[in-house]
């Protein structure tokens, strides 16, 4: 039997309107991994495969968090990112490499939280990393001043390797990109 290469644990985080479900995916290897806070398009259960891939192939620790739709979801997103930043070290993540991302409607939330972080003078978050963003999110997220570069991946699984390359780029691990010195272009 093959030993597990990552673990997953369910979390309950404090949200403004009640508890938020979250799932932590972490590599088995020693601590110090970048931490990606991911807001999925649907349930955190539906995001398991994506989170496992990011964990195993990109070496990321991933917190997939449930959320409400904007504008109320902004409070959820801010609370999850604040909690993640405050607890990164005890989770075994590198607190200086915090990423934010979202899938579909979660991309809108990730972009809003990143802009909130800039306005509140938080340390710069890597990302947002947007997976299949809607066009409105993409228009508002293309690297506004003071925001880390936005990387958008579209077309789901057919661009899965691009997603992994983008995650590696955002964490400063470009040596794993087989000679690529920049992320994939935004379509």
TrEMBL record:
Keywords: Hydrolase. Signal peptide: none annotated. Residues 39-136 form the Alpha/beta hydrolase fold-3 domain. The keyword Hydrolase applies. It holds the Pfam family Abhydrolase_3. InterPro entries: AB_hydrolase_3 (IPR013094), AB_hydrolase_fold (IPR029058). It comes from the Bacteria. One of its GO terms (molecular function) is hydrolase activity. This is Alpha/beta hydrolase.
């Amino acid at each position: 039997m093959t030993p597990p290469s990552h673990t997953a644990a369910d979390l309950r985080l404090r949200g403004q309107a009640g508890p938020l479900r979250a799932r932590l995916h972490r590599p088995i290897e020693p601590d110090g991994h970048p931490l990606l806070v991911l807001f999925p398009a649907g349930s955190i259960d539906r995001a398991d495969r994506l989170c496992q891939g990011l964990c195993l192939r990109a070496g990321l620790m991933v917190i997939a968090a449930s959320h409400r739709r904007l504008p109320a979801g902004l409070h959820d997103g801010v609370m999850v990112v604040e909690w993640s930043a405050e607890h990164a070290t005890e989770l075994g993540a590198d607190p200086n490499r915090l990423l934010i991302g979202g899938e579909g409607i979660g991309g809108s939330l990730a972009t809003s939280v990143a802009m909130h972080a800039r306005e509140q003078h938080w340390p710069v978050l890597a990302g947002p990393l947007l997976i299949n963003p809607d066009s409105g999110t993409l228009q508002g997220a293309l690297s506004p001043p003071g925001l880390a570069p936005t990387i958008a991946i579209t077309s789901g699984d057919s661009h899965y390797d691009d997603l992994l390359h983008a995650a590696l780029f955002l964490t400063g691990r470009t040596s794993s990109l087989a000679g690529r010195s920049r992320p994939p272009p935004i379509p």
